[in-house]
Design a protein that fits this description.
The chain has about 230 residues and is α+β, with helices and mostly antiparallel strands. About 25% of the residues lie in helices and about 25% in strands.
Length: about 230
């Protein structure tokens, strides 16, 4: 089985490390069991995934279901250095070396690490790698995107705290899995007659962006301040 990151369009470092958190490539043999053990429905309310019941489910759904062999995707395990344990995941998708842009996604922080430094530091580490210039140790991307379900206010606030700016609403941008019965904001109370997927709800997506000129215009310092808070 090919692990994510091995075919990523940019060379992936062994780790991105801060004072409290480090990001390392997600490897099924090392991380799938802990990911499954910390999986619960609340974490996946606004994602196409669901709570995982086995490591095989993690591998088949997350890795083999779309990440392996995809050069635009890199998935990282978020490690809490104080406990040396898996605290969640974060990654990049729709990465384009041609257009120097990528989206931050797969942002999952396990319940016991929520309302701590973990999410902030994981996002900050990834932003530094994405938006810092190669001379500074980064990729020198010009744009980082953040896309989330329009009902996911917590995700929107997390992005805005890290300097992302609201850019727009993509209406009816997602078809939810048939087993998803929420997170559509009531959009699907009246199904469309003749719809090809009548049993699948739909959802709007909010799009936020953080560009290189924002980053160099003060957001880098804003992110560092958030990561260095006591």
């Amino acid at each position: 089985m090919v692990e994510p990151c091995t075919n990523f369009c940019f060379p992936v470092p062994d780790k991105l490390e801060g004072a409290l958190v480090k990001l390392i490539p997600f490897v099924a043999s090392s991380h799938a069991e802990a990911f499954c053990a910390n999986s619960d429905d609340a974490l996946f309310s606004f994602l196409s995934w669901g709570a995982f019941t086995s490591t095989d489910d993690v591998i088949s759904t997350v890795l083999e279901g779309g990440m392996n062999n995809n050069p635009s995707i890199a998935l990282f395990a978020v490690i809490d250095k104080a406990t040396d344990s898996l605290a969640g995941t974060i990654g990049m998708l729709d990465t384009s070396p041609v257009h120097l842009c990528a989206e931050i996604g797969f942002v999952i922080t396990f319940q016991k690490f929520q309302r701590t430094y973990v999410t902030t530091d994981a996002i900050g580490l990834l932003l530094h790698w994405m938006l810092d210039t190669p001379e500074q140790g980064g990729l020198g991307l010009r744009r980082a995107s953040w896309r989330t379900n329009a009902c996911n206010e917590k995700s929107v606030r997390a992005a805005q705290r890290m300097g992302f700016q609201m850019e727009g609403l993509r209406r009816w941008s997602r078809v939810l899995p048939e087993w998803k019965t929420e997170a559509d904001g009531g959009k699907s109370e009246r199904p469309r007659e003749g719809d090809p997927k009548p049993n699948c709800l739909g959802a709007d997506s909010v799009v936020l962006g953080l560009c290189w000129d924002d980053w160099e215009g003060g957001v880098r310092e804003q992110v560092d301040k958030a990561m260095n808070r006591v």
